From TrEMBL:
Stored PANTHER family: HEMK METHYLTRANSFERASE, MTRF1L RELEASE FACTOR GLUTAMINE METHYLTRANSFERASE
One matching Pfam family: MTS
Protein's name according to its UniProt entry: peptide chain release factor N(5)-glutamine methyltransferase
Signal peptide: none
GO biological process annotation, one example: methylation
Reactions catalysed according to its record: L-glutaminyl-[peptide chain release factor] + S-adenosyl-L-methionine = N(5)-methyl-L-glutaminyl-[peptide chain release factor] + S-adenosyl-L-homocysteine + H(+)
Annotated region described as Disordered, given as residue ranges: 1-21, 274-306
Catalytic class of the enzyme: transferase
């Protein structure tokens, strides 16, 4: 597929605002604890601007935001890897740190690759990989109907989006053909869910966050079956936390994959990659930097993003 059509680059907010109303919005947002109140006010104003009664629409959006609904759910989109990804209630909001997972996948894949975005949520990761590579055969899957709805919307008709538990809904013809399998599966240990910010805890479904007692339940299942779906030389890439990375790597190794680790300090992002042994179509060794230089584990990468 080429760049998914329903997604667009992030536009600049150029339409005029009403200073007095906007400053009262900023005040309300700030009182509710929004740190980036000015930026949020502009985004809310922009989201309300197409309504017939834009003042009433803005008021309603601000009301939802100050009640604690994530900004992205209020405006209906999230910025991710330069794309505008549609999101809404019931769907995980893609995090900026996950752009590192995209970068690692893009560094490994070639145009034309068969890409599988497992636990796809809104489809943000698959969409960004497809946009960067130009042409891929993209498949995505999630267990949540709301996620599947948004992934279909974001990825467009050229991608195949399946609903079900991990690999269960995938067509058999994908077995042994996947060049790049990306998975940002839930990895928060159950006991740490209460410590998450309220926006996540109260507004993102538990299934999007909860990784079980040690946080690795879903990762364990993804890794265990990956070898059956990967092409020879194919790559599994999973986001994890730095604290869990050694255990994630052990899961990969136990599943017959050759594990590597990459860490982006600036984005606090950790990605474990695992290669299915064999000659394949991926670009370079999984631990190599984007410039092709091979590195030892762990790979520490300075982010190119602020
Ligand atoms: C942390 S969110 C990541 C979503 C998306 N990949 C992203 O980065 O924005 C994890 C996703 O895994 C999905 N998920 C959890 N358990 C699953 C399972 N057993 N099978 C398929 N998807 C699952 C959730 O519905 C959720 O959309």
């Amino acid at each position: 597929m080429s760049t998914p059509s329903p997604l667009s680059s992030i536009p600049s907010l150029s339409s005029p605002s009403t200073p007095s109303s906007l400053s009262s919005v900023v005040t309300r947002l700030r009182a509710a604890g929004c740190v980036f109140a000015e930026e949020e006010a502009e985004l809310l104003r922009s989201a309300a601007s197409s309504a017939a009664d834009s003042a009433a629409a803005l008021d309603a959006l601000v009301e939802r935001r100050v009640s604690g609904v994530p900004l992205e759910h209020v405006v209906g989109w999230a910025e991710f890897a330069g794309l505008r990804v549609a999101v809404g209630p019931g769907v995980f909001v893609p995090r900026r740190r996950t752009e590192f997972l995209v970068e690692r996948a893009v560094a490994a894949a070639r145009p034309g690759a068969v890409v599988l975005d497992l636990c796809c949520g809104s489809g943000a990761v698959g969409a960004a990989v497809a946009a960067a590579l130009g042409t891929v055969e993209l498949h995505a899957a999630d267990v949540e109907p709301a996620a599947v709805h948004y992934a279909r919307r974001n990825l467009g008709p050229a991608a195949r989006v399946y609903e079900g538990d991990l690999y269960a809904p995938l067509p058999a013809h994908l077995k042994g053909r996947v060049d790049v399998l990306v998975a940002n599966a839930p990895y928060v240990p159950t006991g740490e869910i209460p410590l998450l910010p309220p926006e996540a805890r109260d507004h993102e479904p538990l299934v999007t966050l909860d990784g079980g007692a040690d946080g690795l339940d879903v990762q364990r299942r993804v890794a265990a079956e990956a070898v059956r779906w990967l092409a020879p030389g194919g790559l599994l890439l999973m986001e994890t936390s730095e604290r869990q990375a050694v255990r994630s790597m052990a899961l990969f190794a136990a599943s017959g994959l050759v594990p590597r680790l990459a860490v982006c300090d600036e984005r606090n992002a950790t990605v474990v990659t695992g290669t299915r042994p064999g000659r394949g179509r991926v670009r370079s060794s999984p631990g190599s930097l984007p410039n092709g230089r091979p590195v030892d584990d762990p790979v520490r990468i300075r982010s190119r993003h602020p």
